[in-house]
Design a protein that fits this description.
Residues 29-133 form the Non-haem dioxygenase N-terminal domain. By secondary structure, the protein is α+β, with helices and mostly antiparallel strands. The chain is 28% helix and 22% strand.
Length: 362
């Protein structure tokens, strides 16, 4: 059988890895190749459990995709930004406030950062099933590849991570995977995201913050590691630590939904994006992210059948019955476009969504 000829795409040339002295976050590494034996599976489940309990972040390696396959998707990821003109982008712009969904383009200058400065972040968002929407002409030849990549991430990588997290809570290992079906009730989505360099004046006014500190609102976020050092996690002592690049690794972080399902045992990690180090100044930062939701109708309630929760107790729960759909749409429609209130906590602002106090960190 002859090999399939893939459509040509220009190479995306990433920034060189920084050589500066950086205070890196110490994140656990989950090796999916070790989950093929009962002993290895038990070991990796403990590592995943402790990482989500203590930090809300970990790396995933040996996930089954070659570096060349991931690099190819980064090449494709530049297409919606570099090969689509502004008029066509406007035709595919997401109506975020009205729909509570990001699908399509979020163009720069949409979110307010601080002191009158708006973001220089552009992203193009695709639904879990890419056929659910029409896409820019230049991206259409690559949709089959993108679809396969999304399906593999959802079903082969994220499902395996969710099994480990279920084992960590002493639940049946299919608990979380059953809550994330591959059907019309699931609104997980895939994002190509581009951070463009900013002016010196904008950097001064925002103190170098490109995206405010926040917790993701979904169950899990999977970010494909890329070399521009800008992502930071806030540790228990209130210090911001940078996430180090690992070739062909994923960075997984816990979102609010998982925190509520686990009664606060798994912690939704506070993270932000800042100005890169000097030796990466001027480079664009291209990212690929998969945001995973559970089924829309499910409630954000602690899984009390967990023996861990029964022993440890509940430290975080929502008042009332809030569905994944209500939480998803409420958070998406209001992010970055509402007037935040000052908190008594230093450097913290907040807003109320579905009766919940949602914090943002400057």
């Amino acid at each position: 059988m002859p090999a399939t000829t893939l459509p040509q795409v220009p190479r995306w040339v990433p920034a060189p890895v920084t050589q500066e002295d950086i205070e890196w976050a110490e994140l656990a590494v989950i090796d999916l190749s070790k989950t093929r034996t009962p002993e290895g599976r038990a070991e990796q489940a403990i590592i995943a459990r402790d990482a989500m309990h203590n930090q809300g972040f970990f790396y995933v390696i040996n996930h089954g995709l070659k570096k060349s396959q991931v690099d190819r998707l980064f090449d494709i990821g530049a297409v919606p930004f570099d090969q689509v003109d502004k008029d066509e982008k406007l035709r595919y712009e997401a109506n975020i406030k009205a729909t509570g969904e990001y699908l399509g383009y979020k163009l720069p200058q949409y979110w307010h950062i601080s002191n009158g400065v708006k973001d220089r972040i552009e992203h193009y968002n695709l639904p879990r099933d890419v056929s659910r929407q029409e896409h820019p002409t230049a991206l259409r030849p690559f949709l089959p590849e993108i679809q396969k990549f999304i399906e593999y991430t959802h079903s082969e990588i994220m499902y395996e991570v969710e099994r480990l997290l279920a084992i960590g809570l002493e639940l049946p290992e299919n608990t979380f995977t059953d809550m994330h079906p591959w059907d019309e009730t699931n609104h997980s989505f895939f994002r190509f995201m581009l951070y463009n360099p900013r002016t010196d004046d904008e950097e001064t006014k925002t103190e170098g913050v490109w995206m405010k500190g926040h917790a993701d609102h979904m169950t899990l976020t999977a970010l494909w590691s890329q070399p521009v050092t800008a992502l930071q996690i806030k540790d228990d002592e209130g210090n911001w630590r940078c996430i180090k690049h690992i070739d062909n690794a994923l960075v997984i972080n816990c979102g609010d939904t998982t925190e509520y399902l686990s009664g606060g045992y798994y912690k939704s990690a506070i993270h932000r994006v800042i100005k890169p180090p000097a030796d990466q100044s001027g480079y664009r930062r291209l990212g690929m992210i998969y945001f995973q939701y559970m089924a829309d109708q499910l409630l954000l309630k602690p899984l009390m059948e967990s023996l861990v929760l029964q022993r440890e107790g509940i430290t975080k729960a929502l008042d009332g019955d809030i569905t994944q759909e209500a939480w998803r749409k409420g958070r998406v429609s209001r992010y970055g476009v509402t007037n935040l209130q000052k908190s008594t906590e230093d450097g913290v602002e907040y807003e109320i969504i579905n009766g919940v106090k949602v914090k943002h960190y400057n």
